[in-house]
Amino acid sequence: MPKRKAEKKIALLEPIFNEVLVSNSKRITPFLEILIAPPENVTHQKLGTIFGIFEIIDYSDDSSYIVNYLISVIKKEYFSSSKRTSLESLELSLHKANLALSKLAAHDNVNWIGKVNAICGVIEKNNFHFSQTGNITALLLRSRSLTEISENIIPEDKLNPLKTFVNLSSGKILSGDKIIVTTSDIFNVFSFEEIKKNALRFSRDEYLQFLRTALGNELDKSAVLVIDIQEKLEEEVARPRCQKKDLNAFSQVAFQKEREQENKTEIAEEISEALKEEPGIAKTQGHIYIKAEESIEKPRRKSDGKGILPSIGIFVLGLLSSLGKGFLSLIKILFSKISALLMMAASWIRKKISKIPKKNSISANQEKTLSSDQEIVQPNSLPAKEVPASPRLPALFKPLAKKLYNLKSLFSRFTYTQKIYIILAALLIFVVPYFIVKIEKDIQQKKERAATIKMLEEQAPIVEEKTVQGLPANIPAPVVVYSGAGIIKPLVIKGSTYIIKNDSIHDLDQQKDFPYPQGFSPDNACVMSDLNMIFLVNRENKLASFNVSSYQFEDNIFPIPSGAQTNFIGTYMTYLYALDSVNSKIYRYPRVEGGFGTPTNWLKQEYSLSNTSDMTLNDNVFIIDNGQTKKFFKGLAEDWKIDETTIKVIPDRIFATSESTDLFVLDKTDACIFKIDPSGNISQQFCHPEIKKAQEFSIDLEHQKAVVSGEQDVLNFNLTSP
């Protein structure tokens, strides 16, 4: 017997991550973080693990959230697609981080420029990719030699204060490697040579404990990430082998394989011959076709089952072919007998019908005298008694009886299994086609009904108000997703809808209410998608947050200037904007631990906000002032307005988000929601009479829906093109 191959063992590399984070002051904790993000599911396995150290050495309130913001942007983008390679994902993640930092600079948050120290890398199988910026170090310990692999990674000609991550470095890792990523503070305690000696002298756990003790005693802040590369052995699963039984060389089993192969060849030839003999089947491909002459004389209906029955015949032949040549022959004989019997029965019935004399109909006022052995027959009446059987009938049934007897004797010789297969085959041929044709007719009727309903809907317009010519206006009827009292407004975070009420927040996905802390009732609310939070403010200018991940409420620091009144709030990235109509100011608050820091007046020019009725933000700030939509950028009012050459838009509520450059305007007068592009042109319109009853609205970009709230219900409008 041939020798069985030994099970092959494949050596895979497995990184072991350990971190040492020192922060002896709560104030500096937000400015230094370590990222370790392994694959979240099976589809992300090929992306490996993304890691890094991020440090900001500007300790102002404006910079306190940047580290956390960078980590969330990079991690989200890296795992957003499993179709990319790890290197492509890292490049796109760092590019997204650069764009995020550029947006901060565009909003006058520039204290962080030149003060970012970060390394972000990926380990995937035996590949190592990383990018570095600022004063931070990556060391590689291999074969008792320590090398600084982050040295001179960024060429001098590529340095740019607004492009934080500029270059990428890649290499291969080996089993036994140790990668040490560390902030520059470690060199205030250890020299380069001491780091090497201690890494070689101590075991993994001892080295980590040594670093925690030494750095914790000597430094106020420091971060070290130690990555040990080791082999992970996995046995290749051996393919199961079928154990062969001992065969008798003189038995018929020794020739069974060849006989089965011969049977399969002969059966395939028989099926091919049978298909060639069938009319209406192409000889070259075996597909159903209709000849030109037949299509002229008998036009084909939309759903008559003719396209299915031949396919069933082919399927049945294929099924029977798998049962063996002998069984196929028996079935063919059986089918021929049944066909002959049916033909005889049809011929006999035809002859008997032809012998019935034709009679003219008898009027109601006429009667005819018939012989004593006849009876009176009226139109549409049933015979009074059965006609006695003719003495010639037994002679007619003799051939039929003989055929039935032969069929019975043939059927009795089959085995029990063969009889079951015969019955199933008969059902497939005579019963199943009926149901298939019936189902096809039902489907066709449903399609025709749907087409009729759609035609009627198109003929009867839903909205009679004025709309922009050339744009599809009407949208399908909305779906009521919530009913109840005390609705303030709906909010959408990453495809999930939350309804802000007077006494609680209702999670539409879970169908659950989360009551506010005692004594708190909001007047306005907004979302901060980057932090998965909803912020709520009441008339006393108290601010609370609701975390949609942990479902926890928390009071927030909200230093409102004296005499100010918060009418509207909104967010952009991690900034909170508050509009004060009393003092005509828009305050911008930076995110800090426990809430928000000292505000600045975002407006750089005098502008009256006393008649403002709504505010929303994306890259710009939009307000409704005296029934007109106004746009501000970098604190200055822009010469921008909605194009009204075709229709005058009367804004009641406006909506924008950082995920889109478009503005959505709710116009209750025209019962429409208009989508406005950055130039002020109307790109889309969605109209329905129910919009007249709207009080607030939000747009779910992920599911292409408008969530509109009225006095006691919340509706979902589908915004996808029909």
Q: What does this 3D model show about the protein?
A:
- By secondary structure, the chain is of the alpha+beta class.
- It folds into three domains: 9-235, Phosphatase 2c, domain 1 (4-Layer Sandwich); 258-349 and 391-460, no CATH class; 479-718, YVTN repeat-like/Quinoprotein amine dehydrogenase (Methylamine Dehydrogenase, Chain H, 7 Propeller), CATH 2.130.10.10.
- A five-stranded antiparallel β-sheet has the order 1-10-9-6-7. It has a five-stranded antiparallel β-sheet with strand order 2-3-4-5-8, with helices on one face. Strands 11-36-35-34 form a four-stranded antiparallel β-sheet, with no helix packed on it.
- The longest helix is centred in the middle third of the chain and has 31 residues, at 325-355.
- The chain starts with 8 loop residues before the first strand and ends with a strand.
Give the tags.
722 residues, alpha+beta, Phosphatase 2c, domain 1, Methylamine Dehydrogenase, Chain H, 3 domains, five-stranded antiparallel sheet, 11 helices
Q: How many E-type strands?
A: 36
Query: Which sequence of strands runs across the widest sheet?
Result: 1-10-9-6-7
Q: Do you know the CATH architecture of the largest domain?
A: 7 Propeller
Low-confidence stretches: 274-312, 358-393, 459-466
Considering DSSP H and I runs of 4 or more, what fraction of the residues is helical?
25-40%
How many alpha or pi helices? 11
Give the averaged pLDDT, no decimals. 77
